[in-house]
Amino acid sequence: MDYVDATNTAIRGAAPAISHLLSALGRRVAFPPDIPFQAAEARGKEFNATIGQITDGAGRALPGESLAAGLAGLSDEQRNRALLYSPVQGLPDLRESWREWQRRGLAAAGREALPSTLPIVTVGLTHGLSIVADLFTGPKRTVAVPSPFWGNYRQTFGVRRGAPVVTAPSYVDGAFNPGALAQALVNLPEGEPAVAILNLPSNPGGYSPTEAERSQIVDSLVREADRRPLLVICDDAYAGLVYAPGIPSASMFWDLNSKHERLIPVKVDGGTKEFSFFGGRVGFLTFGCEPDGELAQALENKVKGLVRSTVGSPVSTSQILLQSVLESGRAEEEFERVRQRLAERYEILKTSLEEIDSPHLRALPFNSGCFSLLEMSSKVGATAGEVRRLLLDESETGIVSIEPSFLRIAFCSVAKTALPEVVRRIADGVETLARR
Amino acid sequence: MDYVDATNTAIRGAAPAISHLLSALGRRVAFPPDIPFQAAEARGKEFNATIGQITDGAGRALPGESLAAGLAGLSDEQRNRALLYSPVQGLPDLRESWREWQRRGLAAAGREALPSTLPIVTVGLTHGLSIVADLFTGPKRTVAVPSPFWGNYRQTFGVRRGAPVVTAPSYVDGAFNPGALAQALVNLPEGEPAVAILNLPSNPGGYSPTEAERSQIVDSLVREADRRPLLVICDDAYAGLVYAPGIPSASMFWDLNSKHERLIPVKVDGGTKEFSFFGGRVGFLTFGCEPDGELAQALENKVKGLVRSTVGSPVSTSQILLQSVLESGRAEEEFERVRQRLAERYEILKTSLEEIDSPHLRALPFNSGCFSLLEMSSKVGATAGEVRRLLLDESETGIVSIEPSFLRIAFCSVAKTALPEVVRRIADGVETLARR
Lengths: 436, 436
Description:
Two copies of one chain form a homodimer.
Chain A: H1 2-14, H2 16-21, H3 24-28, H4 35-42, E1 47-48, H5 65-70, H6 76-83, H7 92-103, E2 120-122, H8 124-136, E3 142-144, H9 152-159, E4 165-166, E5 171-172, E6 175-176, H10 180-184, E7 194-198, H11 211-227, E8 230-235, H12 252-256, E9 263-270, H13 271-274, E10 283-287, H14 294-311, H15 316-326, H16 331-354, E11 361-363, E12 371-376, H17 384-395, E13 397-398, E14 400-402, E15 406-410, H18 419-435
Parallel strand pairs in A: 3-4, 3-7, 7-8, 8-9
Antiparallel strand pairs in A: 2-10, 5-6, 9-10, 11-12, 12-15, 14-15
């Protein structure tokens, strides 16, 4: 299949490390010269009878009145675009706007030369992760992630793709461990390609590294890239949601960008948390190379092949809504308002957690994101799941348990006034189980 | 992993044929007792600190004004639901409404006893297909599909899952071939499980079988199920869009339902074409078993595991918009209005195609859906792709080519007044190439 070979050749020529990192599926996939390809070629012709979407014959959607009514806040043109198919790679204006959003602050930091592709639109961040998993992992590709980690990584990389998942602790003696990813890979033979997941601000930890810790992370990953081709997935779900003073808030995608020819950062981000658009499912996948080069083209081609074969095309409706935010001129202000609201909760929660007086429970450091993480002592004699169950059954309080000993508080979905009581109930629950 | 074993045991007990049909991935996947599971348990508690979505602390979304403005037509409650996460299996009221929509007409036909599960929401129909591909196919699972077929089947089943795709002609001597699926499987050893794709109304053919042809399809698939476990994917993208008198419009999912214990129909459908909501990406996956049984639970569990690991959760925004249509009391009327508009185009196109006077081009029979298909004679001495290129370059007309000799007209996106001219240009293009 020529169109697949062409992408493989381009990638091998421009970036041998990426070529080594491709999975078997990654090697055999590319965007086919099929209907969306042919439809793209027919765009603007007098007659366009290529694409199976029902229109009035002049490119306008034919929604029923009830569907149109639900989108009443949009202009006629926006509504029309919201109802029709998106290009497989996403709406072009949204891709441009999101790239600007991702790169805000780079120029002021003297980093505007760092390359990044035009982001490809995915159906939320998990879809971006799952495409990276398809492209770069499989039963023989080790995936490193600090522990505890968001459980869906196990599903997306381990269960679905069969990749071995290796870990090292995110925290050692209650402090963040910047060397975790390199430590997780220490036993992998030199030369064997690997994938690492860097999720900062972290879920479940709510942690973002200090400037010094960032340098340690970069140094350890650059050293790792001396040993092997290393794809680093920057899961930037919570990008910018940083509350503690002095903690840098830019994505580490930029710190890892262009640092080593075998260190390949990929940015996965989206409107989900950054614009509180959870139900919209708009994510983006961005590579750290020049947007117009052959390599970017070939990678985009492969990603489009996977978007096409997993979901057809991304969601137009949500893309139009997100684009309306980005072009409103108020995006930064609206982002900042949410960030400040979460910062208030963070301050209150931090104070409440500092007041916990228990030999059985300690709050791990946090400064950002949506969560805080508590670690139980082994002396409690109960699992995290048992604490969760007790809080549900006897204290009307829902938290997430991560075995064996971690409890996660999602302060992003709790009112600030309620947070002290939530902390009190958790501490009481742990004490109750410790006494039993 | 106990939660995975439990689903496998339930499926093996209730439906050994489905158990035989599961892929290696299908066997190892299930919905984990992870965050969405724990969040579901915490729903309704006084404090719910489980889920990483940013709310006001009382379950209300915190959109910026520009995002909220785009959804101005919805009620406050609808808008709130549209912005927050959907359950992984979809919004409960939409699932109920869609099940009623799918089953309309069954009671009048005396078929209300046919079982069907509560549909699981997917991100458009392709996502449903890709989940079925993940659950039931892989490098050792043959997939049968009549040819020519929608090219994305090759991507979803062949490229992504590595399944061998086998075909037999959809048309023989210009007439529909109801035995195509069984013919495609004739060389597969008896006992070896297989998957078949039944896409009616068809893409690219625009064909729906007559009552007599339906019986032939059912008989041939029942005989095939005597030979092997057979999963039949009813790709009902164009369900109900039938224009010719006397052609049944109900999904063949119902004809295949409960016919043979080794014949397993799965229905893939959605709002994309049925409600002209192309950009919304709301699809559904439905099995032909009782909605409340252990089998339905276990299958739903596996599907949820895959939804979770491919896209996180389906799109709330689009689900709310589709639900607003279904609960408007005008769904049938709005569907019928679009169907009638397409029926007018169908009549005009049919007449134009009958008037083609060329030894090099024949229109294949069509009566439904969004497309009509033309077949070129081998005497033209050019490929379908060359005709497409000529029409683009010299006639300002875009159609889709399917190698070696098929041309597809998407009349769903062309105004009725333009259709005769489109047909004339295609015929002229073919004659031009035949003369060269």
